Amino acid sequence: MAQVSNLESGSQAVSSSVAGAQWYLYLLECQRGTYAGITNNLAKRYHAHCMGKGARYTRANPPIALLGAQPFADRAAASRAEYQLKQQSPSQKRQWAAQWPYLLCNEESTC
User: Fold this and answer.
1) Could you tell me which of 7, 19, 31, 72 has the fewest CB atoms within 10 Å of its CB?
2) DSSP states along 42-71
3) Distance separating alpha carbons of residues 77 and 22, to the nearest angstrom
4) What is the pLDDT of residues 99-108, one digit of tens each?
5) What is the predicted pLDDT for the residue at 108?
6) So where are the chain's domains?
7) So what's the pLDDT on residue 44?
8) pTM of the model as a whole
9) CA 15 to chain CA centroid, nearest Å
10) DSSP state of 108
11) Which of 102, 110, 85, 88 is nearest to 29 (CA)?
12) CA separation (Å) from 27 to 10, 19, 85?
């Protein structure tokens, strides 16, 4: 399986160590499956999902954990990668997340 960042030539994916990466593609483990989305504030967006104020899917299937998040330089690149990730099978999505582990402060990565 190719990484999402490699599925599109010229991807704007950046290393998590690069300062200024403003957008993230993230994958949540939910009660009945996974949810992929993009945001420019990962902690705030994850908290919204946990509080039932996120996407319709996560209101019906509350998140259990943040599986992974990949930083991008801009929204357009994150959106393209999100589309590509959503085309993958559930097991491929989890493999992608394993390559992009992301820990929020302390225990914020679980609801």
Assistant:
1) 19
2) HHHHHHHHHTT-S-HHHHHS-EEEEEEEEE
3) 11
4) 999 877 545 5
5) 56
6) 21-99
7) 95
8) 0.78
9) 15
10) T
11) 110
12) 22, 22, 9
In the block, residue with structure tokens 């039932």: 52
Which one-letter amino acid corresponds to residue 88? Q
CATH superfamily of 21-99: GIY-YIG endonuclease (3.40.1440.10)
Q: How confident is the model at residue 19 (pLDDT cuts 50, 70, 90)?
A: low
Chain position carrying tokens 């950046």:
14
Beta carbons within 8 Å of 107's beta carbon, 6+ residues apart: none
Question: Residue 108: exposed, middle, or buried by beta-carbon count in 10 A (0-12, 13-18, 19+)?
Answer: middle
Q: What is the pLDDT of residues 49-98, one digit of tens each?
A: 999 998 999 999 999 999 999 999 999 999 999 999 999 999 999 999 99
